[in-house]
Amino acid sequence: MTKVHAYAATEVNGTLEPFEYELGPIGPYEVDIAVEHCGICHSDLSMLENAWGMTEFPFVPGHEVAGTIKAVGAQVTHLAVGDHVGLGWHAGYCMTCRQCLSGDHNMCASAAGTIVGRHGGFADVVRAQAPSVVKLPAGVASRTAGPLFCGGITVFNPLVQFGLSPTGSVGVIGIGGLGHMALSFARAWGCHVTAFTSSESKKKEALAMGAHDTINSRDLAALESAAGRFDLLLSTVNVKLDWNTYVNTLAPRGRLHILGATLEPLDLAAFPLIFAQRSVSGSPVGSPATIGRMLDFCARHQIAPTTEHYPMSKVNEALDHLRAGRARYRIVLDCD
Q1: For residue range 61-83, what is the model confidence (pLDDT) as tens digits?
Q2: What fold is seen in the domain 2-149+305-334?
């Protein structure tokens, strides 16, 4: 039996405290990961708040894991003890549904969430099904890899799914934990990249991270002047915006793609969509194959998230830093 030392909350919005539990015998298709680093995603906060009504307590957050394989099940063939790996939002898939068999594991209706009904990566060990665990290629540092497995793949997946042309024009709404990675990915993809931000302080940073130019999202005249410009808009914010104004910035056949988990309905007029054949869509993270493709892309183009680091024992300080909106741009816990 493996004893796990973790940090857990016992109630909604509770303080995370040391928590121990034991893992049973490892399954034939499972692996245990010795956690070295674990990113903090806003979804961890949402789960801690039970904002989505599916949190079970005691709750151990953490779904942006980077570490090394500690143990493997008898039927695991593609991973070995000592491999440097990562684990994201999903810790397993049914492997038999049409989505899994088509390579769209991230849309498996029975997928197991790493922090949904199970204990996550704010711990020294986390267990997952082997197909959900992806090896880190040379050139991708474990110290900053964790955020790629949720925030990174969330913004990379649409570039692959929609076959975005390298001559395309991409706008990124919200330059935060997801948006800053979207800028780097889209720039390396070959696109013209525009950052939408309401923060004057972030303009210079956005340009350094890949944007060719910026638009003040609070300047209606600036938004209106961008009419018909973008092939793809990636929205990474979780607040309500004037979506019709943003749709108007799309080129014919352009797409507004929702990645930030806003809980407010999208108020959209039909005619601007119909007349220019525009689309509005969304997507969840990405399949293991697409995660692997993203990691190779990061290694080739030397892309890494911008991170701030806390020892895992200071997890509550790190969460407060995120709550206050001061993270630049992803927080990573280093196992101590």
Answers
A1: 999 999 999 999 999 999 999 99
A2: Quinone Oxidoreductase; Chain A, domain 1 (3.90.180)
The CATH class, in words, for 153-282 is: alpha beta
Token reading at 17? 């405290």
Global pTM reads 0.97
Tokens for 118, please give them.
């199970």
How far apart CA 167 and CA 248 sit, in angstroms, is: 20
Count of beta carbons in the 10 Å neighbourhood of residue 131: 20
User: What's the rounded Cα separation, in Å, for the pair 100 and 109?
Assistant: 9
Candidates 292, 266, 308, 300; CA nearest to 180 is: 308
Whether 304 and 144 have beta carbons less than 8 Å apart is answered as yes
Asked whether 202 and 219 are in contact (CB, 8 A), the reply is no
Domain residue extents for the chain: 2-149+305-334, 153-282
